[in-house]
């Protein structure tokens, strides 16, 4: 899975090892031995603390510590905000979110395309509703292939105390953006495109299929971050040629020359379940399942 290593964790790991000693069996590979040792450590921890855990197919142990039966259940495509505290199995804290300032981490659930979270935390997120909490016991192999340090060795298991702050669908994220920014939506299509005309030119030419349209635009994610923009009037495309994402193209056809507007649409009309990935920088411009916002101006058509 494309599940990234825990951010900044290596900078915090500065202490001693907690690996349980175990004799290597003949012909056993290192990774297999470490997985076996991790399993023994976790079983010992569960027994010593009298814990009853659910084991996932990935080999991660989950002990739910707070339930919220009416909390929103996360599904693929949803955005989840969460807090966690990471500990060694001897209870030494090695990492956490900024709980005091209530600054949770955010992840968009995208199956194999999920980024920015370890497999262990991801498995836990999928098992919890908004408002629920759990303790996760995660073998090192499921913790992002991290580099070891003295505080948390590479092959040591880790405990996460996880709390789900919120779960939001794409539709909820879009509606929250519209409400927070006081956008007056003037048109909404069946496939989820919203158009808000902010500067009207009712007597000017309509953008139609086959025409080349020149536009200025600013592309934003729902958190307000700008990921692309053009303001010199030189960006153009032929309407109907499918050279831009569908939400952008369909939105432009609902405007006239000289008009300005805001286009808001779900990922199904944008970069979908795979997002937009920059191969040169090896980073996502747009994450999978991200709704998009474009503030646009129709400069001219030819």
Automatic annotation (TrEMBL):
E.C. code: 5.2.1.8
The family this protein is said to belong to: Belongs to the FKBP-type PPIase family.
Protein's UniProt keywords contain Isomerase: yes
Catalytic activity: [protein]-peptidylproline (omega=180) = [protein]-peptidylproline (omega=0)
Protein name: Peptidyl-prolyl cis-trans isomerase
GO molecular function: peptidyl-prolyl cis-trans isomerase activity
Domain PPIase FKBP-type, residue spans: 77-168, 210-302
Signal peptide: none
Pfam family, one: FKBP_C
Keyword terms: Isomerase, Rotamase
